[in-house]
Amino acid sequence: MQNNTFLLYGANGYTGQLIARMAADHGLQPILAGRNEAALSKLSDELGYPYRVIDLSDTKALEATLLEVPVVLHAAGPFQFTARKMIEACLVTHTHYLDITGEIGVFEMAKKYHAQAADVGIMVMPGVGFDVVPTDCTALYLKNQLPNATHLQLAFATLGGKLSHGTATTMAEGLGEGGAVRENGKIVRKPLGHKGQWIDFGVKKMFVMCIPWGDVSTAYSTTGIPNIETYTGVAPKTFKLLKWQFLYNWLLRTSFIRNRAKQQIKQKPAGPSDDMRSKAMSLVWGEVKNKAGETRSVRMRCPEGYTLTAISSLLITRKVLEGNFKTGYQTPAGAYGADLVLEIPGVTREDL
Q: pLDDT of 17-43, one tens digit each?
């Protein structure tokens, strides 16, 4: 097998297809994989890549396929249901594991495999897409600016674009679960949107609210900063409505409501069109503070989130295939530095 070959699991999903279509631009040859044979066959005919039909519950078939490749890029979420099976198969076959999750629970779960992954010489790196490459790099960049920082705030927003089926489904699975921050080194549950603020992203000043983004886990691994909050852009009126969500969280957590939400998602387009992605952009902001009250802030302008995910995941896959990796559980900036994000075309960074 050539050293530019990797397994792309979830290739028939919105983001998986985007990654598959961009792979050749990075000199990579994916083996397309997933459960939907009709979709995989169609994509294989279009792009000329081989495919494998595998259910993650079929451990023997999964391990046999992983033995064909040095790296798997896992793009089939929600990852709270899929990541563990893939990681455990990778430990058996000594295959490097990458995924595009943004789920705090998945990062925390993956960390527990650090010693096993290091023992067998593989890297386990969840979050190689928009979740969490730009924000993880921002966190490390700020930590380097203010090494004794005790507090970190990260925010992101999108101008244009919309959610894919996969992202929306992951959100549906989290309905009614509330938010999370890191306080004194520990992950603490909070009401969703318990804090809000206005952020000047440069291009536009936008309102953001506190959400349980993956950096609550990853930024701590990368920087050691004990207090972390993550925010995303939202309409102020939505923020006000969320103040009452605690009254009906019990209802949002029922399978009836979550299944209704997922049914509605399936009736919408799979994700933003190519034209929409080309016109949209992602904005990232971060600030650190130390005990003396000193601060450092930075902001970035990036390509649209799904475009960035496809590019960053392929960029990291390429690095691993070339032997550029650290064994055990790793974060993107922890393994590749704060400037990793600048390797993505269209990313600019500005100190404030």
A: 999 999 999 999 999 999 999 999 999
Q: What is the largest CA-CA distance in the chain?
A: 60
Helical residues (DSSP H) of 48-122, grouped into ranges: 59-66, 79-93, 104-111, 114-120
Residue 181: HSE in the Cβ half-sphere, 13 Å Cα cutoff: 21
To the nearest 10 degrees (0 to 180), the angle between helices 305-321 and 133-145 is: 80
Query: Reduced to 3 states, what is the DSSP secondary structure of residue 47?
Result: helix
Domain range 133-305, its CATH number among 3.90.78.10, 3.30.360.10, 3.90.1170.50, 3.50.50.60 = 3.30.360.10
5-128+307-336 belongs to which CATH class?
Answer: alpha beta
Distance, in Å, from the CA atom of 31 to the CA atom of 14, rounded to the nearest integer, reads: 16
Q: Tell which wins on pLDDT, 273 or 39.
A: 39
- Residues 239 and 196 sit within 8 Å (Cβ to Cβ): yes
Q: Burial code of 195-231, b = ≥16 C-beta within 10 A, e = fewer? A: bbeebebeeeebbbbbbbbbbbbbbbbbbebebbbbb
Model pLDDT for residues 182-217, shown as the tens digit of each residue: 999 999 998 777 888 999 999 999 988 888 899 999
Helices 215-223 + 104-111 axis angle, to 10? 40
- Are 287 and 351 in contact by the 8 Å Cβ rule? The answer is no
What single string gives the DSSP state of each residue in 280-335?
-EEEEEEEEEETT--EEEEEEEEE-HHHHHHHHHHHHHHHHHTT---SEE--HHHH
Residues of the chain with CATH 3.40.50.720: 5-128+307-336
Where does the chain hold its CATH 3.30.360.10 domain(s)? 133-305
Are 182 and 216 within 8 A, CB to CB?
yes
71-74 and 5-9 beta bridge pairing: parallel
Instruction: Please report which helix (H) or strand (E) contains residue 38, including its range.
Output: helix 37-47
Q: What is the pLDDT of residues 302-327, one digit of tens each?
A: 999 999 999 999 999 999 999 999 99
Q: What sign results for the dihedral spanned by CA atoms 173, 168, 214, 40?
A: positive
